[in-house]
């Protein structure tokens, strides 16, 4: 067995009503002035921020920054840090999906590094822990609440920047399923497919390890069983909590095992077309599997987690790709790039961005050349596997 390192710095608290633990956790962290980072929809269209304010009122001074956009942007990270720094915040609370959590991670980087977030893109950029960060996800998919990665869009360059460091893992993650019931069905489906992609890519990655495998396998099982159910019964807290746990498992798995070409392409079409990240992953996942199959027998592990028992690894991977397409269709999601307006004439640009994405490094089949990316894009454009 090869050696490996597994790192999970985040304390996880899960269950209905656990939002009430936020003040206790801030006390434990000796934090007195948190800045709450969220978006206007969550603040104005739901009661989630109000619940957090009620839990903090009379116990902590706090400031709310609600300018996060659906795709985290460098300018928003810079502004949030400036606001928090001027207010003398000593901690960060992120509330929302991956965009809010990744924005908060960027702010945490700037509390240590200062300057413009664009100046700090890279891997292992921090010298030690930064300010405490409590992540409160309102979606179930990104895994950002336990991951060491932040993906932030450089709106000036038209590309997504990747920041990776174990010190940007949130200090605490509160998974309260009551906060996810307001998610629209489309976001529930997108984020669920994001979590599934994390699990499958963590298994196929060249950096795979037994602990990540275990988390990913159980995550796949939970998603297959619970994602269709939660779409049918959106107020069922058990199904919601199961999806939160699956997303967390996927996040912990890929943080330690990395991902691959599916994420590299998803980041690229997301940057160019504004396609939500979970949907972008869903559009590429079956075709990425087909591309990798000649050099990746480990899809047999993912197939067995899905309930496919086939002795031949290639046949197992083929069946997994086919079953995933059926699953995606059953969720009401598009199955091809053509369906979401991606144009063939942009394939060169997508390929250029994808081969420069760090996610591609741990892909099981060498894919750091344009023809490889275009092979996957052609399959995904027409939906042919």
Descriptive key words:
385 residues, alpha/beta, Rossmann fold, Dehydroquinate synthase-like, alpha domain, 2 domains, six-stranded parallel sheet, three-stranded mixed sheet, 14 helices, 9 strands, 50% helix
How would you explain this protein's 3D organization?
With 385 residues, this protein is an alpha/beta fold. It folds into two domains: 11-179, Rossmann fold, CATH 3.40.50.1970; 185-382, Dehydroquinate synthase-like, alpha domain, CATH 1.20.1090.10. It has 14 helices and nine strands. The protein has helices at residues 22-28, 40-45, 48-56, 74-86, 98-113, 185-204, 210-232, 237-257, 261-273, 277-292, 299-306, 313-330, 347-355, 370-382, and strands at residues 11-14, 34-37, 63-65, 91-96, 122-123, 133-137, 149-154, 159-164, 172-175. A six-stranded parallel beta sheet has the order 1-9-6-4-2-3, sandwiched between helices. The radius of gyration is 20 Å and the shape is globular. The two termini are 34 Å apart. The model has no long low-confidence stretch (mean pLDDT 96).
């Amino acid at each position: 067995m090869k050696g490996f390192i597994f790192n999970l710095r985040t304390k996880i608290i899960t269950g209905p009503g656990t939002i009430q633990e936020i003040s206790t956790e801030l006390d434990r962290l000796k934090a007195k002035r948190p800045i709450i980072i969220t978006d206007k929809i969550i603040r104005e269209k739901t009661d989630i921020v109000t619940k957090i304010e009620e839990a903090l009122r009379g116990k902590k001074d706090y400031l709310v920054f609600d300018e996060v956009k659906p795709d985290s942007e460098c300018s928003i990270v810079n502004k949030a840090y400036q606001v928090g720094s001027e207010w003398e915040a000593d901690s960060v609370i992120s509330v929302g999906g991956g965009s809010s959590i990744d924005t908060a991670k960027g702010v945490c980087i700037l509390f240590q590094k200062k300057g413009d977030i664009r100046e700090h893109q890279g891997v292992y950029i921090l010298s030690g822990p930064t300010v405490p960060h409590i992540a409160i996800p309102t979606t179930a998919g990104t895994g950002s609440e336990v991951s060491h990665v932040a993906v932030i869009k450089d709106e000036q360059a038209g590309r997504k920047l990747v920041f990776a460091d174990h010190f940007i893992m949130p200090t605490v993650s509160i998974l309260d399923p009551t906060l996810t019931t307001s998610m629209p069905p489309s976001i529930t489906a997108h984020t669920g497919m994001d979590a599934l992609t994390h699990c499958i890519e963590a298994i196929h990655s060249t950096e795979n390890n037994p602990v990540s495998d275990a988390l990913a396998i159980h995550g796949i099982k939970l998603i297959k069983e619970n994602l269709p159910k939660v779409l049918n019964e959106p107020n069922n807290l058990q199904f919601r909590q199961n999806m939160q746990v699956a997303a967390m498992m996927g996040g912990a798995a890929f943080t330690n095992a990395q991902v691959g070409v599916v994420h590299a392409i998803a980041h690229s079409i997301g940057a160019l077309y504004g396609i939500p990240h979970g949907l972008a992953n869903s559009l590429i996942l079956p075709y990425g599997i087909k591309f990798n199959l000649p050099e990746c027998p480990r899809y047999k592990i993912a197939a067995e987690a899905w309930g496919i028992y086939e002795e031949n690894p290639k046949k197992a991977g083929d069946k997994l790709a086919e079953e995933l397409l059926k699953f995606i269709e059953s969720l009401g999601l598009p199955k091809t790039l053509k369906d979401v307006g991606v144009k063939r004439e942009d394939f060169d640009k997508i390929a250029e961005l994808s081969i420069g994405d760090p996610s591609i490094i741990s892909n099981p089949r060498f894919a750091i050349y344009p023809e490889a990316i275009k092979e996957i894009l052609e399959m995904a454009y027409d939906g042919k596997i």
